[in-house]
Write a structure and sequence with these properties.
- There is one protein chain.
- This protein is an alpha/beta fold.
- It contains 16 helices and 14 strands.
- A hairpin with a 4-residue loop joins strand 1 (18-20) and strand 2 (25-27).
- The radius of gyration is 29 Å and the shape is flat.
Length: 407
Amino acid sequence: MSKNCSFCKSKESVDNRLLAGDNIYICENCVISAYKIFYGDEEQEDEKKIDLDLNLFTPKELKSVLDDFVVGQDDAKKVFAVGVYNHYKRIFRQDTVDDDTEIQKSNILLIGPTGSGKTLMAQTLAKYLDVPIAITDATSLTEAGYVGEDVENILTRLLQVADNDIEKAQRGIVFVDEIDKIARMGENRSITRDVSGEGVQQALLKIIEGSQVNISPKGGRKHPNQEFSEIDTTNILFICGGAFDGMNEIIKKRMGSNVLGFNQEKKGKDEEANLLDFVEPDDLVSYGLIPELIGRLHSVTTLKQISKEDMVKILTEPKNSIVKQYKKLFAIDDVVLRFEDEALLAIAELALKRKTGARGLRTIMEEMMIDVMYELPELAGYEVLITEDVIKRVAKPIYVKPAKKSA
């Protein structure tokens, strides 16, 4: 009596042998198919992951992504895009050229006023590249032995963002903001930071340059008998940002009389802002960063002070612009929201007056819109117009009820 496979009903043959169970048979072809079902997909996922890793986005593509979310700052976006591209090319393509030259990691330093887009650039590319990013404020960090947050907790945060996937975390991005606030105190610098400022810089060196670091998966202070996870920081991209208030004076002092011939057609604040384009490592040392740290931040770029016109563009043009978000919030309640051009200019002027940069725009919008949003559920079918007088708090928004169409 011939035997048939219990799954595909094929008959036993020399080329398709059967395995017998308790009144059940499975043929060789079904065994192979079952193996592919259980293990073939994982192999394909690994191959797909490798393909994605090798299919790097070009600097132009990365800058195009930044253009969708960050207004202005073209020079900074170009330097930033090239820096990120070279970093991941170093990770995934270094072995495609057969020689013994080892490409060193190039971390990035962003210098620019508060709210000029430093953090947003890092967040945007991290999301686009689907890599984890940990953002921390340097002023919250302390060296070992001080009350505060250990520098190594940055890596704990990165691991948590990566869903505890160590391999993924080791290809992530760490953004350290306000790096200028931990500058060591020179003879002419005011006392704005405790003595651990230089110690934090020293502690950052270890993780920035590339090393094996033991971290607590849950964060907090280390203690005996604690379980640790080991993270290799060699392929983690570190981006440091800071406003570096007062850097212009250091650059002026170094340049001396040469500054008088610099860009004569620009005067006042524009000239002051453009001086940052001439920043050199020695200026950063004079400011208070230790030379060893500067030596590990190879790519330096500066961001400009945001103009009133750029503020208006930030409000309206990016994919996730604040105005677009509010219009959608209103549309959900069947309300049309409109802003007069003069109102947008007034918001931009207020943000510049407060010196909060682009990040202050949302705060201003919340303040101006809170009363309208309180009544929003009862305004279905209305159009709400925001005028310049509304922003200046001398008038209320204009509510327009569309006329009923005649039958």
